């Protein structure tokens, strides 16, 4: 197959195996060696080429799908999606990633965007999309209960919420922000008790989406992002002050 002939894959050595698979596939897409509409090799073939288990390949494909880079069609395989908007946003990583001080600005961008996106999800998410969010949170609960961070499910949930806004530009922007903040988010999830709190926050967000409560979805997402930002940066924003005021008002 022409697309497969252009693929030079390397054996995976990373301990976070699925992330390394994602990196290599993204690189192939970024270099134009995998184009919109190209079909990826079957799971079995990818596992052999990467020298990893099919489970790791499956996790990577889910992550790529949640980031809007591929589409998995039942009985047909995984296909590269139209990534024209992604190619405009992805170069931001090259500029921002080396500058640790920019993390606060990235969180500010998330606080401006993701609560509004959660409100859109409450309005637009289909039953199937809500079911997928429920599945992700069930997987996250199992990961947290096993003493792991649930990082993959955390990323997948935010991506699923963005996807349910049904706006490709929004999906690409959120995925780019999440990629840029991967290290900082992972550090926050290693804080004792944080994975459990993150799962609880996600449950609150999903509950609002299920109720079609746009205001509650906006508020739940904002409170979640403020909590994560505080852990990562230690900074106190105007939004955090507002969140604290809301909590005081709700106390008996």
Describe the structure.
The protein has 252 residues and is mainly α. The protein has 2 domains: 81 residues, Orthogonal Bundle (Arc Repressor Mutant, subunit A), CATH 1.10.10; 164 residues, GntR ligand-binding domain-like (Four Helix Bundle (Hemerythrin (Met), subunit A)), CATH 1.20.120.530. 69% of the residues lie in helices and 3% in strands. Strands 1-2 form a two-stranded antiparallel sheet. Strand 1 and strand 2 form a beta hairpin. The longest helix is centred in the middle third of the chain and has 22 residues. The chain is globular and about 45 Å long. It starts with a helix and ends with a helix. About 6% of the residues have low confidence.
What's this, in brief?
With 252 residues, the chain is mainly alpha-helical.
Name the assembly state. single chain
The name of the CATH topology of the largest domain is: Four Helix Bundle (Hemerythrin (Met), subunit A)
CATH superfamily of the largest domain: GntR ligand-binding domain-like
Largest sheet: 2 strands, antiparallel
Number of helices: 14
How many domains make up the 3D coordinates? 2
Task: Kindly list the characteristics that best describe this protein.
252 residues, mainly alpha, Arc Repressor Mutant, subunit A, Four Helix Bundle (Hemerythrin (Met), subunit A), 2 domains, two-stranded antiparallel ribbon, 14 helices
Give the arrangement of secondary structure elements.
Layout: H1 2-5, H2 17-30, H3 43-50, H4 54-66, E1 70-73, E2 77-80, H5 84-89, H6 92-96, H7 103-124, H8 127-145, H9 151-163, H10 168-180, H11 182-189, H12 194-210, H13 214-233, H14 238-250
Antiparallel strand pairs: 1-2
Helix pairs in contact: 2-4, 3-4, 4-9, 7-10, 7-12, 7-13, 8-9, 8-12, 9-10, 12-13
């Amino acid at each position: 197959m022409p697309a497969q002939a252009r693929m030079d894959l390397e054996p995976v050595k990373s301990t976070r195996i699925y992330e390394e698979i994602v990196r290599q596939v993204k690189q192939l897409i970024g270099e134009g060696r995998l184009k919109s509409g190209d079909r990826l090799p079957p799971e079995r073939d990818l596992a052999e080429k990467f020298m990893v288990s099919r489970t790791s390949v499956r996790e990577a494909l889910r992550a790529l799908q949640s980031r809007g880079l591929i589409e998995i069609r039942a009985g047909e395989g995984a296909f590269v999606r139209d990534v024209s908007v992604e190619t405009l946003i992805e170069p931001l990583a090259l500029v921002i990633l080396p500058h640790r001080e920019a993390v606060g600005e990235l969180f500010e961008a998330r606080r401006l965007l993701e609560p509004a996106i959660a409100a859109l999800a409450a309005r637009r998410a289909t039953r199937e999309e809500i079911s997928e969010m429920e599945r992700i949170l069930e997987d996250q609960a199992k990961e947290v209960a096993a003493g792991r961070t649930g990082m993959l499910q955390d990323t997948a949930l935010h991506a699923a919420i963005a996807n349910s806004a049904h706006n490709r530009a929004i999906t690409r922007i959120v995925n780019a922000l999440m990629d840029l903040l991967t290290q900082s988010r992972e550090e926050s999830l290693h804080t004792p008790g944080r994975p459990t709190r993150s799962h609880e926050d996600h449950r609150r967000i999903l509950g609002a989406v299920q109720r079609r409560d746009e205001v509650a979805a906006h508020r739940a997402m904002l409170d979640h992002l403020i909590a994560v930002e505080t852990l990562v940066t230690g900074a106190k924003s105007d939004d955090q002050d507002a969140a604290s005021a809301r909590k005081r008002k709700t106390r008996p």
